[in-house]
Amino acid sequence: MRFMMIVLVKSYDLEAEPEPETYGAMDRYNLKALKAGIVRSMEGLHSPEKSFRVSFKKGKPIVKDGPFTEAKEIVGGYWLIDVKNRAEALKWAKQIPGNEHMTVEVRQAEDFEDFSPEIQAAAKNEPAIRGALKKKTRKKK
Amino acid sequence: MRFMMIVIPKGYETAPADAMPSAEAVAAMDRYNAELMKAGVVLSMEGLHPPSTGVRVTFKNGKPIVRDGPFAEAKEVIGGFWLIEVKSREEAIAWARKIPGDASMTVEVRQVQEWEDFTPEVQAAAPNEPAIRAALEKKRKKV
C-alpha cells in the first residue's frame, strides 16, 4: 500500500528558518527509510511567497500569487512510501524527527483498483499513463 | 524546474471514507492527464483517499501524538497532486490554467527544492541527501 506522508507547517511559523540540525535529523531519517526500501519519492517545496494558486470560476482560471492569507496550514514537503499496511505507515510517520511546528498528515494513495468500474471506464487513459510514468525518468538538467 | 501542482478540493476535508468524484469530472481530468503526458512534462501524479481515512501525527518534545481523521482544524486538505518538470514558472502557470477545475477546486503551485537551492551550511547538515537522490532515481529506472 502506498501512503503519502505530508509535512504541514502552520502559516505563522513559516518565517522561522529551520536549524541546520533539523535538516541533519531529517537526513538520517531519510537514509533509514531508504535503506528499509520503503521510499518511492520525497520532495521539499519552496515557500508560498514564490508560489501561486489557481481557482476556477465557471471553468475559467484565476491566478493569484502567494503568500496565501486564507491558508492556515502550508505543505512543506512529503514522502511517498510503499509499505505492507496502515500500521507500518504509522510506524514510519511516528519515527519522523518532528517538532512542535510540524504536523504530518498520512493519507493512502489511490490505486486504479480503488475506483468503481464506472470511474475506471471514465479514466480510460489512466492505465497507459501509469505504465508510461513508471518507465520515465527525470530529464538530465 | 520542477513544480508541484497541489489540488485542494473544497469539501474534501469532511468527505466520507467512500467519497468518489463524478465520472464526468474524472473523464475531463483523464484527458488533461493524457495531454500532460504527451507533452512530456509530468513526472508523477497521485490522488489521495479522503482525510477521514487518514491520520495526523504531531510532535510534543519530540514524542509523536497520533490522531485519526477527519481533522476538524483543517480548512483545506489535499486531494492529489501532479509533479511536473517545465522550463519556466510561466510554463507551470500555463499548465495550471488548463486544469479542468470547477468552483470547488483550488490548485496551489509550488516550486520543488533542488539540492542547489540550499545554503552550503544546510547541504553540509544533510550529507546523505545526494546519495539518497541517486538511489531513488536508480530505483525508478529499475521498475
Indicate how many domains the architecture of chain A comprises. Answer: 1
Helix content of chain B: 25-40%
How many helices of chain B? The count is: 4
Largest interface: pair, residues per side = A-B, 80 and 81 residues
Number of strands of chain B: 6
Low-confidence stretches of chain B: none
| Spans of at least 5 consecutive residues with low confidence of chain A | none
Q: Please name the CATH architecture of chain A.
A: 2-Layer Sandwich
Q: Assign the CATH architecture of the largest domain in chain B.
A: 2-Layer Sandwich
Class of secondary structure makeup of chain B: alpha+beta
Specify the CATH homologous superfamily of chain A. Answer: Dimeric alpha+beta barrel
Strand order of the largest sheet of chain A: 2-5-1-6
CATH class of the largest domain in chain B: Alpha Beta
CATH first level of chain A: which class? Alpha Beta
| Principal-axis shape of chain A | globular
Percentage of β-strand residues of chain A: 25-35%
Number of domains of chain B: 2
Tell me the number of helical segments of chain A per DSSP (H or I, 4 or more residues long).
Answer: 4
Compose a concise summary of this entry.
By secondary structure, chain A is an alpha+beta fold. Helices cover 29% and strands 31% of the residues of chain A.
Describe the structure in your own words:
Helix content of chain A is 29%, strand content 31%. Chain A has helices spanning 20-35, 86-94, 117-122, 126-135; strands at residues 2-10, 39-44, 52-57, 60-65, 73-82, 102-108. The mean pLDDT of chain A is 92. The mean pLDDT of chain B is 95. Chain B is globular and about 45 Å long. A four-stranded antiparallel sheet of chain B has the order 2-5-1-6, with helices on one face. In chain B, strands 3-4 form a two-stranded antiparallel sheet. In chain B, strand 3 (55-60) and strand 4 (63-68) form a beta hairpin. Classes of the chains: A alpha+beta (141), B alpha+beta (143). At the A-B interface, strand 1, helix 1, strand 2, strand 3 and strand 5 of A face strand 1, helix 1, strand 2, strand 3 and strand 5 of B.
